[in-house]
Each structure stands twice: as C-alpha cells, then as structure tokens.
C-alpha cells in the first residue's frame, strides 16, 4: 500500500477515535454563559456566577456536584485562559467543563455516552487523492496580528492570532488565505464552493510550521469538519474575511450525518 495512503488511513482512524471517546464531542448536552449575578442554569444544579476572572458555583452536597471525587458543599471556583477549556466538575456520569471565549466564561457538560455516540457510523470523506497535496508559501505577518472572526454561535465573535498568510495555486487559480492559531499549531479555516451541499458551512486544515525556505505543505486530504458539524454546543471560529478558496475542494471530510 502507498505509504501516503496508509498514513492518511491512520490519521482517519485517530480522528474518528477522538470523536467516539466517552465524554467526547458526540456527547455534549448543554452550554451556558456564566452570569454575573448568582443564578440557576437550566439543566444544572447549583447557583452560578462570575466576576469576569473566576467562575463560581454554590451548591449543597445533595446537589451531586463533585470536584476530584469530593462533594461540593459550599463554593467551588475555577478559571481558564482565553480559547481554553478545562474540566471542572463531575455530576454523576457527566463532566462539566469551563471555557473562555471572547473574554466570557461559559460552562458546558458532557455525558459518558449518547445516542449520537452509540449510533456513530463514521465521517464520510472524499477518496484520498495525492493531487490535493499542495506546497504553499508562508508569508509572516507582523508580530501580534489578530483577526476578528464570527463563530458557530451568533452571540460570539473571537480575536484569533494570525501569524501569517499562505499563497498557493489550485487549478491555475491563485489563492491567498489567512493562517490562524486557535490553540496550538497553524491552521486555515476556509470556505469553498462545495459548502452547504457536499461539505459543511466551512472546514479546517491544520499544517506544520514553515520549512527553512518559508514553505508549508497543505494536505487537503486531511481537511476536517469543525466540532459544530457534530454538536450544537460548539464555539468554532469561522474563516477569516477573505478565506474562500475559489475552486471546489473535493478532499477531506464531507458533510457529516446528523
């Protein structure tokens, strides 16, 4: 078997294993912004609030919230950096995580399993095609450049680090896209003419740092759907302005079955 195809199949196996793990992306049950004043949140026990830096929950032992196996009988606090998410509380078989997006704190919870997880039959993909491995020029941006982007949530925008642009050619047509760093590593979030029919509203491709000559390799066979394709409780950033590839990208993941 071609080594590139084998590597792609291993990538696909790891990708789908991430999706179906317990408390994974197919088991999300809810999302709430944390309010400033103590308040109940639908679907969760306790009273929740934030001072902007820390999130706070006040609960009685009978509510069933625990931290590291110890019942919360009083107050528990937690914080997280921008774009981060961290486990915070357990509630029976559910895990409650804290995240910060656009400067605001939110909680989101996951079950151990779900009908979506139990019925998962894989993510449809286009066939592997070596023609979709493209060499692109990386053009560094000034230090500290950020781009303001929309997200899957209509009530959220984010400022993402944008360390450079990439230039390449597809079907004879020049393309220039903004590269971002969401958590770690470089990626492009992009639109293309297949969106909404063959593929999701947008997709993402991660890639390695530039080589010594200032080039990167874009393997579009590894294009993935962002988490919003699998759950309504995602906060995925949309493509930066202008990040539209002008030719159909029939590579990587297709539209997910939901």
Describe the structure.
The chain contains 2 helices and 18 strands. It is mainly β. The chain folds into 2 domains: 91 residues, no CATH class; 137 residues, no CATH class.
**Helix/strand class:** mainly beta
**How would you sum up the major sheet?**
6 strands, antiparallel
Q: Overall mean pLDDT score?
A: 96
Quaternary organization:
single chain
Quick recap:
The chain has 258 residues and is mainly beta. It is built from two helices and 18 strands.
For the structure shown, list the relevant keywords:
four-stranded antiparallel beta sheet, mainly beta, six-stranded antiparallel beta sheet, 2 domains, globular, 258 residues, 2 helices
Layout of helices and strands, plus pairs?
Layout: H1 3-20, E1 28-33, E2 47-50, E3 55-59, E4 65-67, E5 70-71, E6 74-78, E7 85-91, E8 94-101, E9 104-110, H2 115-118, E10 133-140, E11 146-150, E12 157-161, E13 164-170, E14 173-179, E15 186-190, E16 203-207, E17 215-219, E18 224-225
Antiparallel strand pairs: 1-9, 2-3, 3-6, 4-5, 4-7, 7-8, 8-9, 10-13, 10-17, 11-12, 13-14, 15-16, 16-18
């Amino acid at each position: 078997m071609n080594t590139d195809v084998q590597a792609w199949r291993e990538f696909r196996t790891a990708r789908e294993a991430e999706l179906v793990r317990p408390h994974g992306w197919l088991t999300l049950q809810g999302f709430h912004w944390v309010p400033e004043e103590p308040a109940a949140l639908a679907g969760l026990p306790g009273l929740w609030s934030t001072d902007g830096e820390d999130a706070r929950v006040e609960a009685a032992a009978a509510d069933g919230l625990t931290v590291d196996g110890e019942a919360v009988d009083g107050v528990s606090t937690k914080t997280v950096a921008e774009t981060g998410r961290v486990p915070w509380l357990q509630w029976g078989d559910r895990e409650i995580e804290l995240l910060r997006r656009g400067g605001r704190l939110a909680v989101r919870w996951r079950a151990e399993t779900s009908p979506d997880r139990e019925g998962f039959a894989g993510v449809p993909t286009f066939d592997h095609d070596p023609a979709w491995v493209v060499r692109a020029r990386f053009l560094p941006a000034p230090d500290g450049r950020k781009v303001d982007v929309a997200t899957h949530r209509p009530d959220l925008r984010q400022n993402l680090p944008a360390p450079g642009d990439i230039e390449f050619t597809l079907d004879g047509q020049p393309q220039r896209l903004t590269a971002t760093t969401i958590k770690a590593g470089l990626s492009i979030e992009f639109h293309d003419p297949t969106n909404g029919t063959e593929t999701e509203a947008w997709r993402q491709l991660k890639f390695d740092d530039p080589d010594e000559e200032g080039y990167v390799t874009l393997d579009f066979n590894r294009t993935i759907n962002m988490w919003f394709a699998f759950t309504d409780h995602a906060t995925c950033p949309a493509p930066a302005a202008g990040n539209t590839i002008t030719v159909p990208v029939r590579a990587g993941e297709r539209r997910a079955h939901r």
